[in-house]
Amino acid sequence: MTAIVLALPGNDALAGALARELAWPLGSLASRHFPDGETYLRIESDCAERSVALVCTLDRPDEKVLPLLFAADALRELGATRVGLVAPYLAYMRQDRRFQRGEAVTSRSFARIISSHFDWLATIDPHLHRLRGLDEIYSIPARVVHATPALGTWVAENIERPLLVGPDSESAQWVADVAARAAAPYLVLEKLRHGDREVEVSVPHLEQYRDRTVVIVDDIISSARTMAAAVAHIRAAEMSPPFCLGVHAVFASDAQRTLETAGAGLVVTTDSIPHGSNRIPIAGLLAPAVLSLAMDEVSAKRVD
Ligand code: R5P
After folding, report:
1. What is the value of pTM for the model shown?
2. pLDDT surpassing 60 at residue 297
3. C-alpha distances in angstroms, 22 versus 3, 88, 163, 198, 289?
4. Relative to the CA of 219, which ligand 1 atom is closest?
5. Does 170 sit in the ligand 1 pocket, CB within 6 Å?
6. Is ligand 1 within 6 A of the CB of residue 258?
7. Strands (E) located in 44-119
C-alpha cells in the first residue's frame, strides 16, 4: 500500500516536514470559503488505494473541524484505504466530566466525532486531566507522542546550568523527564486556579539555585496565566528573566503580553502549533507513530 501526507490549511510546514521524515509524498488539498462562509474543499492529489495522513493541529478547533471532517469524508469517497489524523495539538481535552447538571462533556463528544471519521489518531502530549489515556474516550487507535526528549535536548544544548521549574503538580511528569534529559535539578510549584484566567502559584525556595538559569516548563501556554504566575515569583526572588518552555503554543488573546508584563525571558515552544516562539521541531518525533498507525492493517481497524 502507498501512503501520502495531506495538510489542512495552515499545516503545510509541519506536513512537509513529516512527509520528508517519512519519505512519503506530500499531496495537495485546496480549500476556500464561499461568499456565504461555507467551505469549498478539493483533494487535488490522487488518494485512491492510498493510506492518507491528514495533518491538522487543533488549536481554535471550532473553525477547523468541519473542513477537517469534509476532507476525511471526501478522501473515503475518493477511494483512500485508510484515513488517519495527525493532530499535534488535540483539542477538547478540558471538559472530561459533567461538573454541573446539563453540561456537555465535550471531550467525549469530540472523541466520538473524530473516532467516527478517522481510522487512527497521532498527537503530541494531549492534556489528560482526569483521563488515564486517550483510549478511555477514543475508539480508534490513538498514539500519544511525548515532546520531552526534544525539550530535554533543547535545554541541554542551549542553557548553561539550568534549573527546570514546573508551575503545577500536573507538570511534574514532564518537568522531571526534561530535567533528567538535561542532567539538571528541578522544582515543582503548587498552583491554585481561581477561574479561567485567575492563577496563583506557591513561592518556591530558590536561594540555593541563584547561580542557575530558570527554565519554566509547561505542556500548554494558553492564556499564559499559569506561566506568568510562575515567572512573577521567579522575578520577585530577584532572579534573571526565566526561559519559558512550552509544548503547545496556544497563545489565547493577550497571552503574549501577559508573559512580557510578568517579566518572562525567551519563550520557546515546539512547532505543534505555528507561532513565533516555535524553536523545537516535532515531525521527527511524530513520524514513527504515524508510520506504524498508517501501515498497521490489523491493529488499526475502524471500530465504529
Ligand atoms: C494545566 O494544568 C496545564 O498543564 C497548563 O498549566 C494550562 O493549560 C495552562 O493554561 P494557561 O496558559 O491558560 O494558564
Report:
1. 0.92
2. no
3. 10, 16, 35, 43, 10
4. 4
5. yes
6. no
7. 50-55, 82-86
Residues in the chain: 304
Give the pLDDT confidence score for residue 203 in this predicted structure.
62
Ligand 1 centroid vs 175 CA: distance in angstroms? 14
Q: Is the C-beta atom of 234 inside 6 A of ligand 1?
A: no
Q: How far is the CA of 219 from the centre of ligand 1 (A)?
A: 7
Tell me, rounded to whole angstroms, the distance of Cα 95 from its chain centroid: 17
The amino acid present at 301, given as its one-letter code, is K
Hey, whose CA ends up nearest to atom 13 of ligand 1?
223
220 C-beta neighbours (distance < 10 Å), count: 26
How many angstroms separate the CA atoms of 168 and 219, rounded? 11
Q: Which residues of 260-298 are buried (b: 16+ CB within 10 A; e: fewer)?
A: eebbbbebbbbbbbebebbebbbbebbbebbbebbeeee
- Interval between CA 249 and ligand 1 midpoint (Å): 11
* Phi, then psi, of 195 in degrees rounded to 5: 155, -175
| Residues 245 and 279: beta-carbon distance below 8 Å | no
Residue 47, φ and ψ in degrees, nearest 5? -110, 5
Q: What is the Cα–Cα distance from 71 to 65, expressed in whole angstroms?
A: 10
Q: Say how many Å lie between the CA of residue 226 and the centre of ligand 1.
A: 6
Q: Residues 225-247: pLDDT tens digits?
A: 999 999 998 998 899 999 999 99
Which residue do the cell numbers 447538571 mark?
101
The closest-lying atom of ligand 1 relative to the alpha carbon of residue 228 is 14
Confidence tier at 173 by pLDDT (50, 70, 90):
confident
pLDDT tens, position by position, 4-13:
999 999 999 9
What pLDDT shows up at residue 196? 72
pLDDT for the residue 198: 72
Residue range 273-300: mean pLDDT, rounded = 88
Q: Does 175 contact ligand 1 (Cβ within 6 A)?
A: no
